[in-house]
Prior knowledge:
Mean pLDDT: 82
Number of strands: 6
Helix content: 10-25%
Low-confidence stretches: none
Oligomer: single chain
Distance between the termini: 68 Å
Amino acid sequence: MSTRVYPTFVKGNPRLRVFLPNFFMKLVKSKINEPANHVRFIIPLEMTDDDVKNYLEKIYNIPVCQVQTRLYEGEIKRNHKNYLIKEPDYRMAHVTLPEDMKFEFPDLFPKAKKDKVDEDESRLLDQAADLMKQRRRNWDRKDVPTWFGL
């Protein structure tokens, strides 16, 4: 299922070509408490249960017990000019892994790292504010006292 164009085989060339699918799978965090071996993905409409299972097993080497897919209609919204705007339809795949496997959603923004970044940002902001105060202090009017204004 690949449309990528590869050069034709020439004698002597190694056959080390990897054909990747044109599908994407978006990992979704569940809003409800699901067992640790359940994972949800948003997948394209053309993808089937077998495609999802093969995708996970062949590319990521993840054993899959069961796959269930369901179609969802995109939400219809009305904008400020009273036009109707429909979001695209999508398919949700519910994947069940073996019972001994546990899936934990990756922590993209750890708390300790975030606290350190916040401290660094606040320190840099304070330094920038001090520099601005020094630069504003009557740089063009040296004879005017400081109490007169910035």
